[in-house]
Amino acid sequence: MATPSKKPGTSRKPAVSREQAEDAVRTLLRWAGEDPAREGLLDTPKRVVNAYGDWFSGYAIDPAEYLRRTFEEVAGYDEMIVLRDIEFESYCEHHMAPIIGRVHIGYLPADKVVGISKLARVVDAFSRRFQVQEKLTAQIAHCIEDVLKPRGVGVVVDAVHQCMTTRGVHKRGVSMITSQMLGGFREDARTRAEFLRFINIHSKS
Asked: Cα 53–139–185 angle (5° rounding)?
């Protein structure tokens, strides 16, 4: 499946030109006390806009598309499938600071499975947007549930928020864990505990 070629900003209103985006970077440099015209900063606005095109490319992608190609010839396999330690990088929508961590996904297939790389691509598509971790966790889980129609879905996200480590309270070594359990993962404590064991998080239920 081809990834859409749109850049961030092309599908939202009002449209912002590349020139306007680069001017905004120059404004921030001046506000910070710098001179955007000095040699070391001449190409910085261009580089920042290019970086934003990568960091926020998720706005141009429909994550559900990644899950629509499935496989049914799995010899009746219906046990839990887990993909753990999916690294991701996102940005906090409150401070535009990095969120860096890992996502663990588990699901109980009904009559079809999806290629495991597609699960990682779903994570990338949602994380390459401005986010809060709770929303990111729920979006991943509900996308998998809506498209694959499994008997259950579990998603756990463990991440470090730079808005907390590099500003404000300046607390390093702190990570945040969020989870979304749907279907069998929510209703059956044994299923939930099995998933948490697989990803090395112990259940207290």
From this structure: 145
The model carries a pTM of: 0.88
The H or E element spanning position 86 is strand 81-92
User: Token pair of 126, please?
Assistant: 């949602």
Structure tokens given for 179: 């989870």
- Distance from C-alpha of 35 to C-alpha of 45, rounded to nearest angstrom: 12
Distance from C-alpha of 78 to C-alpha of 68, rounded to nearest angstrom: 19
The number of helix segments (H) and strand segments (E) in the chain equals 7, 7
Helix (H) or strand (E) holding 163: helix 162-165
Contact yes or no for 159/137 (Cβ under 8 A): no
Neighbouring residues of 127: CB distance < 8 A, sequence distance ≥ 6: 58, 88, 89, 90, 99, 136
Q: Phi first, then psi: what are they for 69, rounded to 5°?
A: -95, 110
Cα separation, 107 vs 181, in Å, equals 10
CB within 8 Å of 58: residues ≥ 6 apart: 124, 125, 126, 127, 128, 129
Query: How big is the chain by its Cα radius of gyration, in Å?
Result: 20
pLDDT digits (tens, 9 = 90+) for 2-57: 444 444 444 455 689 999 999 999 999 999 999 999 999 999 999 999 999 999 99
